[in-house]
Design a protein that fits this description.
By secondary structure, the protein is of the alpha+beta class. The protein has eight helices and 14 strands. Helix 2 crosses helix 6.
Length: about 300
C-alpha cells in the first residue's frame, strides 16, 4: 500500500506541475477575440489571427507606452485586426491586467475629456474613431483608421461582441473616488493613479514618485472648473495613506521638493510653507498641498483661477 500511495501521489504531483503557468483551453485573450469574431454579423473579416504579447513582450508591441501598463499591473494583450463590411480597418487590443482595479486604472488614464460615455462593461467611453471600456480584469481599446459617420457604429458593433464574450464580472468603481469633491468637477475626468506615470499623465511635477504611490497606496485625480472662463481645468488629487505617520512623511518630502523648486526658479516661484498646508505660486499658477491626518490633498490651479481656497 505504501508503494502504491507513493506512485499515485507522484502521478498527481506531476499532473499538477504540468498545468502550472498554463491557461485553461480557450480562456486566453486570443481565444476570447476568436470567439468574439464569431458573433459579428456577415461581412466582417478577421484580417489575421490575434497576436498575443505576454509580460515584458509588451515592450515589443507598444513603443514608449508599455511602462504605464506595467505600473498598473499587466499580464497579456491580444492584438486583433478586423475589416468591416465596408472594407474599413479597425484595430482592437484586449489587455488582461493584474486585476479589475488595474483594468479600471488604465481605462481612466486612457480616457480624456473629449471622450463621450458609452454603455460597455463596467464603464466605457468613445470618440469618433476610438472606443474603450473595462470589464473585470480586462481593458479593451478599439481604433478605426478612418473616422466618418459610420465608423462609430462599427466600433460599437465590434466592442459589443467582445463585451458579451467576456464572462468576467464587471467590477466596481475604486473607493478612492470617494475622496474627490463634487462641486466643480468635470464629468468623467476621474483618474486612478498607482504611480508617477499615471500622475504625470494629468500633471507633471517630477519624474520622482513624490506622493509615494504604489499597489497599496493609490490616489484619485480629477479635473475641475473652479471659476468662469478659466484657461484650463484645475487638477485635484487625493491620497489616503495607511496612517497619519506615513502621510506626514510624504508631506514633509513634498515640502523639501517645493523648497528646492523655489530656489531653482528664483523670483518666479514663491513658497508659503506651513505644518499642514503649503502653497507654491508662480506666474503659471498655484499648487496647494494640504495634510488632513492620513489624507493628503493637492490642487494644481491655473493662473487665472481667483478666490479659490482649499480650507474646509
Amino acid at each position: 500500500m505504501r508503494s502504491r500511495f507513493s506512485v499515485v501521489t507522484a502521478v498527481l504531483l506531476l499532473t499538477a506541475l504540468a498545468g502550472c503557468g498554463r491557461q485553461a483551453p480557450g480562456t486566453g485573450s486570443g481565444d476570447i477575440l476568436d470567439r468574439a469574431a464569431h458573433k459579428l454579423p456577415g461581412g466582417w473579416r478577421t484580417v489575421a489571427p490575434p497576436k498575443v504579447y505576454q509580460d515584458r513582450a509588451l515592450y515589443d508591441y507598444i513603443d514608449g507606452g508599455a511602462d504605464l501598463y506595467m505600473e498598473f499591473g499587466f499580464s497579456e494583450v491580444a492584438a486583433g485586426q478586423y475589416q468591416t463590411p465596408r472594407g474599413k480597418t479597425i484595430y482592437l487590443n484586449l489587455f488582461k491586467m493584474a486585476g479589475p482595479k488595474a483594468a479600471f486604472g488604465i481605462f481612466s488614464v486612457t480616457r480624456r475629456l473629449e471622450f463621450r460615455p458609452v454603455k460597455l462593461g463596467l464603464i466605457g467611453a468613445r470618440t469618433d474613431y476610438e472606443e474603450i471600456f473595462c470589464k473585470g480584469e480586462y481593458f479593451v481599446e478599439a481604433q478605426a483608421m478612418e473616422a466618418d459617420s459610420t465608423s462609430g457604429s462599427e466600433l460599437e458593433q465590434l466592442c459589443r461582441a467582445v463585451d458579451t464574450t467576456l464572462v468576467a464580472a464587471p467590477g466596481e468603481f475604486p473607493k478612492e473616488f470617494g475622496l474627490l469633491p463634487r462641486k466643480g468637477a468635470i464629468p468623467h475626468s476621474e483618474v486612478l493613479v498607482r504611480g508617477p506615470l499615471a500622475f504625470n499623465s494629468r500633471k507633471f511635477l517630477s519624474d520622482e514618485n513624490l506622493f509615494a504611490l504604489n499597489d497599496s497606496v493609490q490616489g484619485a485625480m480629477a479635473s475641475f472648473a473652479l471659476t468662469p472662463g478659466q484657461s484650463e481645468p484645475a487638477i485635484f488629487l487625493a491620497v489616503n495613506y495607511p496612517d497619519s505617520g506615513a502621510a506626514k512623511t510624504v508631506f514633509g518630502k513634498l515640502g523639501e521638493f517645493y523648497q528646492q523648486k523655489a530656489v531653482a526658479e528664483g523670483d518666479s516661484g514663491t513658497l508659503k510653507p506651513g505644518p499642514t498646508r503649503l502653497a507654491y505660486t508662480t506666474g503659471r499658477g498655484m499648487d496647494i498641498i494640504m495634510l488632513h491626518n492620513r489624507i493628503i490633498t493637492a490642487v494644481f490651479a491655473p493662473v487665472d483661477v481667483h478666490g479659490f481656497h482649499t480650507e474646509k
